[in-house]
Amino acid sequence: MPPMLSVLEGIIAETGVEPKYVRCDERPEFNPGALTYWCATAGRKQRSLTWDDRE
Q1: What's this model's pTM, rounded to 2 decimal places?
Q2: What angle do CA 26, 16, 4 make, to 5 degrees?
Q3: What distance in Å separates the CA atoms of residue 34 and residue 37, rounded to the nearest whole number?
Q4: Which residues contact 22 (CB under 8 A, 6 or more apart)?
Q5: What percent of the chain has pLDDT over 90?
């Protein structure tokens, strides 16, 4: 499991709360394939944002 997903799982296990959003860039530790799989296997929603979607 990529480090980012291990951290997310640890936070969820410790707090009992899943993050509403996970924002990431294109650095190697933010593996988009792993994040897509993580979302899909746990029934989480995934949405890709464009530059125009920024807050």
Answers
A1: 0.61
A2: 20
A3: 5
A4: 8, 35
A5: 16
pLDDT digits (tens, 9 = 90+) for 22-47: 777 666 666 778 888 888 888 787 77
Phi then psi for 20, rounded to 5 degrees?
-70, -35
* pLDDT score for 10: 93
25, two tokens: 């860039």
Positive or negative: CA dihedral 37, 42, 48, 54: negative
Cβ-based neighbour number of residue 24 at 10 Å: 11
Report the distance separating Cα 33 and Cα 39, nearest Å.
10
